[in-house]
Amino acid sequence: MTSSPPSASPVAVVTGAARGIGLSTTQLFLEQGFTVVMVDRDAPELERVSSALSGTEPLVCDISEPDQVTELARELTQRHGRVDALVNNAGVADFRPLEETDYATWREVMATNLDGVFLTSQAMLPLLKAARGAIVNIASISGLRASTLRVAYGTSKAAIIHLTQQQAAELGEHGIRANCVAPGPVDTKLALAVHTAEIRAAYHDAIPLNRYGSEREIAEVIVFLCSTKASYVTGQVVAADGGFQSTGVGLPAMRNR
Ligand SMILES: NC(=O)c1ccc[n+]([C@@H]2O[C@H](COP(=O)([O-])OP(=O)(O)OC[C@H]3O[C@@H](n4cnc5c(N)ncnc54)[C@H](O)[C@@H]3O)[C@@H](O)[C@H]2O)c1
Asked: Whose CA is nearest to atom 14 of ligand 1?
């Protein structure tokens, strides 16, 4: 297989780019002059949003399917021959008690949230090496602090944090940095599907900034970690969470107001 000449502009690959945090990250990369390869398994939505964003290339791929990820890497090799930034953002959420989490549900969550990140990063390695690129994996505060209902989701996200550290340890000698962003709650379709009114109210109480984050606020951290401004930062997890993770006892009744 022959590779095409290197792209003139840096290339970012964002998984789960058809909506939510992935879409906002795509828009920010575009503002910074990147060509953005938008990856998602939702083909109609991916086509719709990508067609309205010049500088993007949609590639349909289910990152939990090894054969599809191999094909994605092959296509990227032919088109660009390099990846400057890989954002492993695609994720699924399922909130239910441990006793009700059947094996199929567990596997479904792990397949995208953990296996997908492993597969995509591994398949992109030659392309990342070519650019001495950066990986940013999207975990969650659910991977930093345990809570009810998140036995599969929280465990998958905790594993992503460690996977990031493994990547940083092994890939540094190739000039590849790997970092992790752990968002707090953000109003996306994913959160709307699993956050009840009670969960929303509880988050507002428990978060020092007293609100959900925006997709753009998460994207800013992701794009910073991919940029040369973060050129000596690797193996780190940054919680973009309004202060949730750092606050051990944040009882609303003990606030000074
Ligand atoms: N929204 C939040 O409150 C929140 C909080 C913490 C972490 N996160 C994490 O941020 C990331 C993005 O979340 P979001 O809220 O923007 O979600 P979202 O549901 O709005 O968007 C996720 C996108 O990923 C795609 N996707 C899912 N599984 C895929 C797969 N196997 N292959 C390819 N594409 C796939 C979906 O089609 C969708 O377009 C996820 O990893 C999520 O766990 C979100």
From this structure: 20
